[in-house]
Amino acid sequence: MAGYDSRRDIGGASGKRPVRRPRAVSDGPAAALRRNRSALLLAGLLCPLLVSPATAVEVEDHRWGWDGSVIPNRFNLLTLSLRNDQPGAFEGSLEVVPGGPLSQLGFPVVLPELFVSPFGTRSVQLPIFVTEELEHTIRVRDAVGRIVAEHVTNRPPQGVPAAVQLVDPRRPGTNVGLPAFPATSFPASFAPLVGTLRLVVLDFVPRWTAAQRAAFRDWIHCGGILHLYQGPDGSFPEFIAELADLNDDAPVSHVAAGTIIRHRKTLAAARADWDAARGTAGWKAIFQPPRAGTEQQKRRFAEQQSWTAIDARVFRGLRRQTTPNINWDAVFALLIVYTVLVFPGVRLLTRGFDYRVCLAAVVLLAFAATAGIYQIGRRGYGESSTIRGVLLARQTRPGTFLVEARTNVFVTATGRHTLRAVSSEAAFGPSDELGSLFGRTLIYAGARPGIQSTIPLFSSFTFRHTFRTTDGPSWRLRFADGEPARAGVTAADKLLLRLDGPQLGQLRWSVLTIGPRFVTCTYSPQSQLFRATGKPAAIPPPTPHRRYSPIVRGSALQQIDFFAARALGFLQGANDGIVPPSPGRRVPPNEPISLYFACDLVDQPWKDAFLLANRDLGPQRVTVVFRVDLSDAQAGGENASRRN
Questions:
Q1: Which among 59, 139, 282, 393 is least buried, having the fewest CB atoms inside 10 angstroms?
Q2: Are residues 347 and 260 in the same domain?
Q3: Helix 355-380 crosses helix 328-340 at what angle (to 10 degrees)?
């Protein structure tokens, strides 16, 4: 047994070389790391994808409009609630993209500066132009552009201009059955107000900023209906500053196109009145969205489609306004010369030279011909970029106008062009052309609203925007003989109106409506008097369903049916069943009224315009529509439009 080696028995009796036992080696950390290097590398790459980072800002909630619905083809209010769970302040940006997370169906609306305090919350409001029922994706980005939060909204249902009750979140109160909206969240811009909010119930003075008070005043002046109730102490709200005009103690009063109704009771005592009002057919026709499949729903859908078709027609006309005046004779002559020089000219001129000289000559000739055609094209477009538009302006006070503009920008050089507004109250939205500009257009909100787009060479870009200007003409329409008797309203030949303010230029067309009647009228430039003739007007009352024939040739593009239907629609309010006619309501004889403009923004935006003015007389409404040349009436309008 001495000297026995156990390894010999492993080979067996066959005499083969014995197999050695593997030695048990204790692996160290370095060896383990070397063997598992690939696995560790893969885990390190996948960890950032599998582990979600801590979110600095979270979108807690969102709210569309005033009652959760939207009005198509209008700027709608989107209210976002943000929360910061981190100990540090958050600074970044926010964007709202039409469509889901994987699809973009419109232009993103960007808030470039977003600040949320440590462990704080913030409410953000954006005016979003809504064309149809779409979900929207909200993304919050940090300072370097990384997405830190994403939230997808619901598809908001289509509604009607809302009736809401403004409430104070700090104190409980009585609700009359209308959707409640926090008064502190009332927007500071008029853009999401016009056409989306119809009626407001209020029994206290909200603690608003100057911008919020101005927006509420603009809404009233544009036809808003305000119901004021006594507070718990039995007194009416007393407004200050911009809203001091609302303190009239009459049961029913008017401020511009708006209506203020004072109820000598509290909200608790008025609950039964509102319950009864909501059951009437008039209320349901105005404030309740029609049910799917009904005739009312089909009619409203047809009206919305007609408005969309009108917008598309206006935008197409704007794009056609920039037409080149190219010298085609020079283009054809240049092409003939280029062809002759290339062959056989280059061959004859470079005979005896190296072939590389021939190729260089061909390249130089090609560059020269391209540059020549480019210069001819620039001269054909006037060698300058142009901005043209059609706008509808409503006078809220003498000299102050709220403007809806449809604008076309034509450029002669490719680049990323940015247009900014000077006021934070402006809002920008898309036009009818979307597909070709996806990913290349941004709409900015916040302190400096604007729009940015990459526009190709010699092409156009159309968009819409709203703004306020205070440099417009100042007109007031009043009855020439004071306030006429109500019986005299029916006698159209006795109606006499005077337009106070800058003298009008050439009057090209005019019509006057008394209630549902359309009659012609005469105008005296010296006295600025409008006198109804009593003869039926040749133009029937326009409706959105009629064919649209242009009444402005040349540079202006406004359509009579589009303009008059929109304007007369804005003038609805006091006589629609919501505000019953009151014999005792007071209408000051010299009350400012709303004037409407349809203008061209080429060189003199106030030159060729349509003006609409209206006054209420008991149960009837008097509207004057006339087309004039305003080039001599107001020179400051051009500067106002260019600044805004």
A1: 282
A2: no
A3: 180
Pairing assessment for the beta strands 441-444 and 109-116 based on DSSP bridges: parallel
Domain boundary among 261, 289, 317: 289
What is the residue-wise DSSP string for 231-280? -TTS------GGGGGGG--SSEEEETTEEEEEEEEEHHHHHHHHHHHHTS
Print burial letters for 568-606: b (CB count within 10 Å at least 16), e (below 16): bebbebbbeebbeeeeebebeeebbbbbbbbbbbbebbb
- Here the CATH number for the domain that contains residue 70 is 2.60.40.10
Give how far Cα 71 sits from Cα of 161, 195, 300, 332, Å: 7, 8, 11, 53
Q: Has residue 501 been placed in a domain?
A: yes
Instruction: Give the pLDDT confidence of 451-465 residue by residue, as tens digits.
Output: 988 888 777 888 888
Name the percent of the chain in helix, strand, coil, to the closest 5.
25, 35, 40
* Domain coverage including residue 610: 382-410+433-644
Sheet holding 459-469, edge to edge: 427-430, 459-469, 400-411, 386-397, 596-600
For residues 503, 508, 513, 518, the Cα torsion angle rounded to the nearest 10 degrees is 160
| Cα–Cα distance, 245 to 194 (Å, whole number) | 20
Structural domain includes residue 484? yes
Q: In this structure, what are the phi and psi dihedrals at residue 43, rounded to the nearest 5 degrees?
A: -65, -40
Q: How many domains in the chain?
A: 4
* 177 and 237 inside one domain: yes
Same domain, 494 and 600: yes
**pLDDT value at residue 550:** 31
Task: Please state, as a whole number, how many other Cβ atoms lie within 10 Å of the Cβ of residue 179.
Answer: 14
> Are residues 233 and 127 located together in one domain of the fold?
no
Q: Which pLDDT tens digit goes with each residue over 299-350?
A: 665 555 554 556 776 777 777 766 666 667 777 888 888 887 777 777 777 7
Domain's final residue, options 266, 289, 312: 289
Q: How far apart are CA 644 and CA 641, in angstroms?
A: 5
- What the block records as the tokens of 199 is 């009626």
Cα 346 from Cα 356, distance rounded (Å)? 12
Strand order in the sheet with 121-130: 57-64, 74-84, 121-130
Judgement on whether residues 395 and 442 belong to the same structural domain of the protein = yes
Q: How far is CA 33 from the centre of its chain?
A: 60
Show Cβ contacts of residue 345 under 8 Å, excluding neighbours closer than 6 positions: none
493-547 pLDDT, tens digit per residue, is 566 777 777 666 666 556 666 655 666 777 777 777 777 776 665 544 333 333 3
Tokens of 215: 């927006």
Radius of gyration of the chain (CA): 35
* Residue 328 identity (one-letter amino acid): W
307 and 402 Cβ atoms separated by less than 8 Å? no
98 domain residue, yes or no: yes
The average pLDDT across 144-148 equals: 89
